[in-house]
Design brief:
alpha/beta; FAD/NAD(P)-binding domain; 2 domains; three-stranded antiparallel beta sheet; 18% strand; globular; binds flavin-adenine dinucleotide
Length: 327
Amino acid sequence: MAAAQQLGRAGHDVHVYERESRPGGLMRYGIPDFKIEKHYIDRRIEQMQGEGVTFHCGVNVGVDKPVAELLAEHDAVLYCGGSETPRAAGIPGDDLGGVHDAMPYLVQQNRRVGGEPIQSVAWPSHPIIAGGQHVVVVGGGDTASDCVGTAFRQGAVRVTQLDIRPQPPEKEDKLSVWPYWATKMRTSSSQAEGAEREFQVATLEFIGEEGQLTGVKCCEVDEKRKPIPGSEFVIRADLAFIAIGFAGPAKAGVATELDGKMKIVTDNRRSRNVEANDRDYRTSVDRLYAAGDVRRGQSLVVWAIREGRQAARSIDEALMGSSVLPR
Ligand SMILES: Cc1cc2nc3c(=O)[nH]c(=O)nc-3n(C[C@H](O)[C@H](O)[C@H](O)COP(=O)(O)OP(=O)(O)OC[C@H]3O[C@@H](n4cnc5c(N)ncnc54)[C@H](O)[C@@H]3O)c2cc1C
């Protein structure tokens, strides 16, 4: 959306193709309303439509419309498909009823709050509701925190968050880490609502009865994340969410087409992010650019906006010979 707005303002005829029923990406369907209310995104869409940008929602590129067709119809195509494949935890028992990746849970709740049917194109799932449940969240990042806050809003009895990292110090040591983000104990608004946080704890197994989750078996770990013998314990759980990061773009549809016939170059890491530099954002496919999480891996909104704006300038320069858009 950041790229589309810049290119529209530079005078180009811009079309945004979006798989879901509404634009906004993870800001709409990943991050809960209690962190960002969606009217901010709606207002931006209205503004962009007023400026001449056309949105085509419900178009799953690579499935409903091949990338090759987009390239034939447009002078340049910018691929900003995100990085939404959940990292596989490989924890025994993760096939029990009640154990879920974070994304289907957060996406369906965002859709529910937005007045949409809970089924999305990417995340078809049955209703998951934490009301009256003992909930365990595995992971220590933003996605885990969003599961905690969502579970509380749905009326969970108890929410426990498991983090394999050591508990950070209360105060940062600025001199030793500057200019990097200082490690210190941070409590998100969701955690402040009453989450029980366990640090330096590994998740060993999801345990259950008759196919349904009843508890999470854990143990304490040392500084090298090695299990401490004899430290095992079980937390009661009816629901567990796995939020331990993301492993690159969705494999179906667009990635299959790009990997197959087009042989697009990826960064060769397990996640297979699309290879493009942060000067011109060009991929190995002629006139196809890439920006945001699909290029750099799951990251932050500010990075997605910055990359989108810089990619817009690169495309404008390629099409017009020069550009007044900022870098
Ligand atoms: C739960 C969660 C919480 C987060 N919290 C924060 C936070 O607090 N602060 C922060 O800065 N960042 C946060 N992030 C990260 C942030 O949301 C992302 O870094 C950012 O949204 C990336 O933007 P993007 O445009 O690259 O990709 P996305 O936002 O993922 O957008 C990609 C879009 O492409 C669409 N798409 C994908 N494939 C196709 C296709 N084949 N055809 C058509 N459309 C397609 C998707 O539907 C989506 O709309 C969070 C992420 C998650 C998952």
